[in-house]
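Re: the 145-residue chain
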Amino acid sequence: MSPFGTDPQQFIADFFTSFHNELVRDDEDPALIFDRYHTPDVVQIADGHRMDRDKLIAHTRPVRKNKPSARVEVHEAQADEDRIAARYTLHVQNRKKALVIEVYYFGQFAEDGRLRQAHMLTRTLPTDDAPAPTGPETGQVVVPA
């Protein structure tokens, strides 16, 4: 049974947006939030760098401290059983600068929708250093029709 429902684009957008929003807007222990979205044996390889659960949780701490705003723009996503492939753009605004990151994502998820394994290739795109997003668009998910 697929954990993605009928729309893999919406699933991946909701997954990243919900995780990010809980992490930056909640005072709950980051490990507890992390575990709601990831299996205990999770492995993520991003641009050749392997991170397990402990390293990924450590990676959430500066994110939580800086509280960046983020918006995920999913361009396409395809799912097959427990695997998903997606191409999306991540727009991040932290205190000092805006980042736009193009992501090619290959993930495997458990039946309950938690991430088990991910492989990602990323590239930072030039930005126009636009001002930080505020109001309703902060944390917004964009899924083209």
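The helical segments are 8-25, 30-37, 53-66.
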